[in-house]
Structure formats: structure tokens, C-alpha cells
Amino acid sequence: MNRSVFLLFMHKCTLGDRFEELLILFFQGCTRAIGCKLLAITILRPKVAGGRILSKVRRETRSPALQSVAVAGLFYPRFASEPGHAQVAWIPFLAFLLLGLPCVAKADPKQPAGTEGDPVHWSFQKVVRHEPSEVQEKAWVANPIDAFILSRLERAGLRPTPPADRITLLRRVTFDLTGLPPTPEEEERFLHDDSPEAYPSLVERLLGSHQYGERWAQHWLDLTRFAESNGYEIDADRPHAWRYRDYVIRSLNDNKPFDRFVTEQIAGDLLPRDPDPIRQADRLIATGFNRCGPIHLVAGNVDKDEVRYELLTEMNGAIGSVFLGLTLSCARCHDHKFDPVSQADYFRLQAFFAATEPSEIDLATPEEKAAYTKRTNELKKTMEPLRQQIRELEAPYQNRLTEQKRAALEKRFVEALAVEAKLRTPPQKELAAQAEILLKVSWDELVDSLSLADRARRAELRAKVHALELQQPVPPPEAWAVKEVSPIPPTHILKRGNLAQKKERVEPAFPRILNVNLPGAAAVKSDSREAGPGDSPPARLTRVELAQWLTARGNPLTARVIVNRLWQHHFGRGLVATPNDFGKRGAAPTHPELLDWLASELVEAGWSLKHVHRLMVLSNTYRQGSRLRPDARARMLDPNNQLLSRMNRRRRDGEGLRDCVLSVTGTLNQRIGGPSVRIPLEPEVYDLIFTEGEPDNLWPVTLDANEHNRRSLYLMAKRNVRLPLFEAFDQPDRLTSCPVRPVSTYAPQALILLNGPFLQKESQVLAVRLMRECGQDADRQIERAYRLALVRPPTASERATAREFLAGQSELLRDRMRARLRIPLVNHTPDGIDPAEAAALADFCLALFNCNEFLYVD
């Protein structure tokens, strides 16, 4: 097969230097598309008019099998009088001449998208541990992070911002590490500790608290798309998925080395069995990572191969986005347009998961199973009489509706049903099956036909059944995990990602641009690993080798990606602003030497995430104030604060906002782990739950009301059901990996904070707390409210404004009561409290929850 010759004719064009730049870019794209490699571009500018050749571009094919050369020339009959411009009569613009030589029109599965000679993108280069440059203000440097930051600031002619005050710093580091505000008692203790170790001791206490794992697990679950339902229209529940969430929390709290954390999630089921049953269960549960993405399971006809392919696509994409920070999914249908990842690389990586299937692995003891069976049988015996009453009540209506439908059937359906089932011909069997569907009575038809009395009676009986269903015990423990199957299904490159168009078969291997040596082993080749003549077949790579490769010292991405994520959540923006894209289309690092230093430090410290946290929050860079200085120099030279001459102010996310409100009111239930909690839903949210049956008890609310005040991390994470507060404050959809939550500002946020049922209720709870702790003393109530909500005492003007508001609002509410108008009454107030004063205090608490200082962390 020969290449065709492409000619583009242009007439009477005025061309210049910009055209040459565009030509080069265009030529690079064209040569890449047909499998050629750019060796050189030479622009020849003849000094004499009438010169013919303006530029000559030499190309050599990237494949050794295609030893051919492509040449393109621009032929100019004459030059214009202006330098650098030409009047062109005609241009044979592009000609690829591959005549009489063998040509491979399809992608070679053994070749990467990038080739030798191409410039290597920074993120694919080896991590180098740089030493920080010398700085002038040496006294400001608390650790190497400061030296790297200060060096850039000094080169730009900027200075760091003075440190934040102690209250701001306390509030900042407590929220960053735990997601909660400090208590007034913690504030008092910190402010009265003048020792140099006060702040480091605070950091150690926060890193050692269980709230640390809960806060940082939320960031990790955003990346993994974790949810407790499948997604799509049916959105079926995943009853054991919560154990993966708890695994992440435990691992972070235990400071599990990140390399082991990665390995257990990718291949925990393939590791040697641990003699400790708890650790072994953890390894199995960890593999739930591979199942976190949505999966399209419906009740109708399902193509099993398509479902499996979707699952493999989710697994493969997670490796790229979560661990490598690459958009590998862009290579699913073709070679990556920007990064040196070929389509063959994509499917070789997917081949690691070819034998991987979802599995629920039994973890229960015989005693747990026996207890569950006993309790379930007891509830069934209690429910059965109620269900029997429902069936008896429905039977007459059901029979009447069925007979009405039967009378309306066409003759052919009636005749088919009249024949005994075992005697029906194939056409009669098909007609009978269709007739059964036509005769089926739906729940809404049945309910509509009931009398008012029977409808009420039926609703009462169903409510009793549902109340008993809520008492069902937690199912015996299972690991929501994966397993290996045999024989291993083959993996093929798919033309345009279409499962029906299979091309070459490939075996598990690593992307060539990232091929590194495994520690203590020979180099792992990243081709199909074919055996030579007389050789035994090579061992197939497994997910264990994939995990080892990801965490190998030579892998340039894994450590860089995770330290960048930690930096992002502490400083508001990653050193690389695109945390899931370290490729050519991603942002360049603002401090590349610092990024590499942090990555190498993580590895040298045994992959300890807490070690990196400690370095970051103890740095003077982190301790800076966030206020803009009056001079405009920093604003002009670094408008987006990429050089970090001050700290970035950040808004709480929806989950953090809810948790802080519950903490301030004193009602936060800090129990760790366990099955997820279902809190009451607003009717319009409940209506989002899909069902083909009767829409009652679709969201069985957790019976224990105290559980409703658990941290937001423990609320049921159903993909199609998001709480209004979370949705308004940019909770991700859990369909794709979310490395950075957007921060939007729009009207519904203010409406939810002022009028939403959660904030209305919790402002009353805080008012009751203030009345119980401070009595009816308005000044004490104001002081305590500010210390609880804002972690500081009120200023004199704030105190005066608050007193004026409480007095005026109380009088206004009394006037409404005298006029017999409704006011929001506060429940559970101490004896002797004026209802108007209690309601005014609740309004004051609501105002505090709505102020910017509560919503933002300086």
C-alpha cells in the first residue's frame, strides 16, 4: 500500500513569519497523524529576489519498518518588496511521498505515541531532588519549603506577607487538617501557650486525631468517584461500599505508607494472605477502589460484554487520573492527541484488569450469620400477617381489574391463553407472554381503584411493614471487592474504541514513556513480551506488578501527583494547577524544583503523608496572612498569587460547612465509621429517586435521630440524590474524578443559608445552647456565640450592633405575637425564657452562620 500525495493550492496570498509558524505546527500534526517523526525544520530565506525554495522540511518515519522520507517544499516565484512577505502564485503546500515502499496504515501496537528525539515533557522526566537557592531573608526560612518559595519571590522583587494572627492560624490549620472549627476551649489553651512548641504541638495533636482521616478521606473519595449506588437511571444501592470509605479513613489515620495504600487498592486481593484476619479483610476491602465508578446496570436486556468493557474503562481511567495525573482515557479511541500515550498503551494498561471482576467476598463469622438469620426470621414472622392483610384487601380490586383487562383483550390473545401452557405452539407462547403483560395490574391502577377507606387502611398497613423493615439488622459483613477469573479474557486494541471492531491482541504492559525498573528486579519490558524461539512463555504481568510500577522510585508521576494534591488542599491551588493532568495540556508547575523536592521527600520519608502535611503547615509560607497589602506591586506582578506572597482565602465546601454548623451547635455526633446514614429528604429531592414500583419507603430514614448528626462523610452517598446544601456548594457528581471542586457564587446559596431547613433548625439549636450556658444575659450570649462560631471575641462595634439587633428583633417578634401572627418558635428552651427573645436569638445565630467569616477560612 502506498501513501497518497496531498497538494493544497493557494492563490494570491500574502504570507509572513506568522504563516511559517502555523505551517510548522500544521506539519507536525500531519506527520504525527500518519506515523512520521519530525527531525528538523529549516527555513531558508534567499537574499535575492526570484529565489525559489523558501523552506524545506525533512521527515523520517517513526517506524523502522518504514525507512522513508517525506519532503515538503514551498516554491515562491518571487518575493514582495516588504521583507518577510511574498506574493504567491501557487503553493504545493504539503506532499508526503512514500512511493513503492511498504506502509503500515494502522497504528503499530508495539510503538508508543512519543519517540526518541522528541523533547520529553517535564512530568515524564526523572524526579530530581533540588537544593533550594540562597535567599536574602534567611531568618524567614523555617524549612526548605520556605527557601524555595522565598527564592522565587525575591527574584520577582516581592516579599512575604507578615504572619497571620494566632486565632486565624488556629482556625486555618484546624479546618485544614480536621475539617472542623476549634472549640473555645482549644482556642483558650492555644492562646495562653507562649512556648515555641505551642504551634508544632497543635499540629501533632490535629494529625493524631481521628477527624484528620475523616477530613482527608473526603478529598480522596472525590478523586475515586466514590458513591454507594451504581448511577444511571436505576441507581441501585451498593450495600457494602461503605467499608471502602472506612478503609480509607483508617489508612489515613494510621499514616499507612502511601505506596502500600496504593498497592492494596489496586491489588490487595492478589497479595500474599495476611495471617491477621483484620488486615486481610482490609486488603480485600481496599480493592473496592476498582469499583468506585458508575456502572450501567438495568433491568432489561444487557450486553454483558459492553458492561464488562465499561467497567474496564472505569478501572483504567482511574489509574490515569488518580495516580498518574494523566488523561489516559483520551487514548481509548486513538493515540493521545497531546501526550505520548498511544492507543496501544491504553489497552496494554487495560489488560492488567482483563481478569478482574467485581466480587462480594464473605467476611462474616458463623455467629454473625446466625444472629442475622435469627433476627431476620423474627421480623419476617411479624411482617407476614400484615402483608397477608394487604393481599386480602387488594385481592377483590386486583381480580376486578384483571377481568376488565381480559375482556378488552384481542381475540388472538384470548385464544392463546385458552390453550394449556404445555400444548401451546411457539406463536401461541409468544402471544400468551404478551397477554400476561397486558393483564398485569400496576400499583397505581390498583391504588386508584381502592375506596377511600380501603386506601387509608392499606397505607396504614404498609407503613407498619416499612417500620418493621427499618429494624432489619445490618447484613453480615462482606468485602465490596474484586477477584481474578480464569481463563483470562483476551484484550484487543479497539478501532475507535468500538468493542465490535477488534484489532491486535495485546498483553499487560506499562506505557512506554513511563517505563521504569521495578525495585530489585530486572527491567520490565513494555511491549507484548513475546517469547523467542525455544523460550518458555513469559509470565503475564498482574495488578501487583502494576502497583509496584506505580510506586517504584523511578516512576516520575505518582509521588509528584500526590504531593501536589496535598499542597492544593493546604494552599488553595496546586503547584500544578491541573492536578489530574500533568500532561502537555495541563498547567506547568509554578515551582518545579519545590514539587520535585516534595516528591523525593515523600519517598525518602517512607511515603508518609503526615510527614509532608507537617512540613507544609509548619512552614512560614503557610503561616502568612491572607490580607492584600496596600501596595499594588504584588497585585501587579502576581495577580493570581501563584508565587504565594500571601495565603489564599478559601471557602468551605458543603460538607465542611454542615460539619462546622453541627460542631458549633454542639450536636455533632463524632462516632467513627459504620453503615451510612439516611437523613430525612425534602419532598422534591425524594422525587428524584427512581423506581418502577410504588414510591414509598424508597429512602428508609435511619431510625436513630442522633445518627442524623454524623459527619457529612457518613451520609448515604447516592449518585442521583444530592442534598440541596451540598449541591449548592459544588459537591461533585461522583461520575468522574474530581481533583478540584469548583467554587461558584450564585443566588440559591444565599437562599439555602437563610431559608433552608437545616440552617433554620441548627440556628435554633445554637440559640438553646447559648441560653443554657449563658442564661438570659445578652452580653454573655453574644460573647459565647462569637467564640463558638468565629473562634474570637466580638469587637466593641460588633457587640453594640448585636445588642441593638437582639433588642429590636425581640420587640418586633412580640408585636407579631400580639397581632396573632406566626413566629418561628424555638423548642426545648429553658424555663422562664421569653419566646420572642428566644426567636430573636435564633435569628442572630442564623446571621452568624451566614457571615463571610464563617463561610471562609483566611
Describe this structure in words.
This protein has 858 residues and is mainly α. The chain is 44% helix and 7% strand. The chain is built from 30 helices and 11 strands. The chain is globular. Mean pLDDT is 85; it is low at 1-18, 33-107, 112-117 and 517-531.
Question: In terms of topology, how is this protein built?
Answer:
Blueprint: E1 13-15, H1 17-34, E2 36-43, E3 53-61, E4 69-75, E5 86-88, H2 144-155, H3 166-178, H4 184-191, H5 198-207, H6 210-224, H7 242-253, H8 258-267, H9 277-286, H10 304-324, H11 343-350, E6 356-362, H12 366-407, H13 411-418, H14 426-439, H15 443-449, H16 452-469, E7 478-484, E8 491-494, E9 502-506, H17 543-550, H18 558-571, H19 592-604, H20 609-618, H21 633-637, E10 650-651, H22 654-665, H23 683-686, H24 724-728, H25 747-755, H26 757-774, H27 778-790, H28 796-818, H29 835-850, H30 852-855, E11 856-857
Antiparallel strand pairs: 1-5, 2-3, 3-4, 6-7, 8-9, 10-11
Helix pairs in contact: 3-5, 5-20, 6-7, 8-9, 8-17, 12-16, 13-14, 18-19, 18-20, 22-26, 25-26, 26-27, 26-29, 27-28, 28-29
